[in-house]
Amino acid sequence: MGLFQIKISLSLLLLLQLLYCFLGIGFNGVSYLRTRFGGRQLSSNPPIVGAIFLLIYGVFLVAGYNDYYQAYRVLMVLALFFFGYFGIIRHFILYARTPESYSSKLSWFVAISINLFGFLLNLLAAAGRFTAVIK
After folding, report:
1. Contact 88/112 with Cβ under 8 angstroms?
2. What is the torsional sign of CA 68, 74, 76, 82?
């Protein structure tokens, strides 16, 4: 079964997207706290900026919760491009060029994994691979 054959309920998709949002904010929060206590941030991204963009993404999800499906799908296309580049591709490029900009290989892998999880969810949303309950 391919990714585009999957169809899940909108409520489950939005719940998983919220989980992605919280995981990303949590990762950035830990990164920020490490710098506040004299440690290195987990990744090359500034943690405050990363958390702000994830909060904006959380606002994008409101369209899905309020049954504005077309707007939700368009916003998920924007999220695909943004988080696909800054959350996945850029991490690969930066780790190849400057691996020391990450606190460890594990933190690099976790950053990529969180964003890959979100990317796949956003791909399902943008492609309309969800079923919505008519109210």
Report:
1. yes
2. negative
Residue 100 neighbours by CB under 8 Å, 6+ apart:
none
Q: What are the two backbone dihedrals, phi and then psi, of residue 8, each rounded to the nearest 5 degrees?
A: -120, 165
Tens of pLDDT along the chain (135 residues) come to: 566 678 999 999 999 999 999 999 999 999 999 999 999 999 999 999 999 999 999 999 999 999 999 999 999 999 999 999 999 999 999 999 999 999 999 999 999 999 999 999 999 999 999 998 755
Domain residue limits, the chain: 8-130
Using the structure block, give the residue that is written with the tokens 């949303």: 125
> Residue written as tokens 């991204």?
45
Indicate the pTM of the whole model: 0.93
SS3 category, 79: helix
d(CA 135, CA 125): 19
Helix (H, G, I), strand (E, B) or coil at 102: coil
Q: Taking the CB of residue 102, how many other CB atoms lie within 10 A of it?
A: 22
**3-state SS assignment for residue 1:** coil
> Rounded to the nearest 5°, which phi and psi values hold at 131?
-115, 135
